[in-house]
Amino acid sequence: MAGNDYGWYPGHMTKSIRAIREELKLVDLCIEVLDARVPLSSRNPDIDELAKDKYRLIVLNKSDLADEKKTAAWIEYFKSLGIETLVLCAKEKKTSDAVKKAAMNVCREKIERDKKRGIVGRPIRAMVCGIPNVGKSTLINTITGKAPAKTGNKPGVTRNNQWVKTSAGIDLLDTPGLLWPKFEDKSVGFKLAAIGSINDQVINLIQLAGEVTVLMNELYPGALAAKYDVQEDASVQDIIKGAGLRSGLIVKGGEVDMQRASEQILNDLRSGKLGKVTLEVPHQ
Question: How much is the pLDDT for 120?
């Protein structure tokens, strides 16, 4: 499969990168939000370059959907890179205090410098960035305790940079989700499509569900067979059919609607109904 079969790069993203580069001059901290189920694939390589001179904080969001043992391995991985990592579920209320505490810790040198210059209580200016649909706006909404930032289950909801003041001692800049024009590793596009960071409308969902099935069988043997009531050695096609039969997705003639059955598998993965799943581990 070609590396960018799952490509989705709307024109507004090039404009967004330029705007983010300009705004970065104004910020102290870059908060990079990743999906805890695919921490490596959900890292935009452009952000490392864009934020190389800024304080860094990685947020592994949607941790409630991720495999806890694999999340622990990812924490160690980012620690080895010298980047502080926060594991959370952005919609939980305790998120606000956790992010504030982590941001203050990461920026402690700047805060101390400000104190020596007689500047006390100045908010940390933080850019919240990441690829589409990882929960950036949800994170901001939880910290502010209201909903100034649009959210949605579809990628690409935030289109413009938006500064949001909070009572947590941080001013947050919400930025549009940034994908990159071509995935050098074909598995990256597949994993992003699997978790919903690429618009389903540009994807062959039957093919995607098949690839998800193969990977799930490799990483979590027996999980799909148990969920869809099929034999453990069932073929990919039979597993998809099993998902359709279990949900009553039958078309005229008694055949399974393979399109809707594929959508069911993807929805079950994304909502956590297949269990706590992480689709990749740190490279050794």
Answer: 87
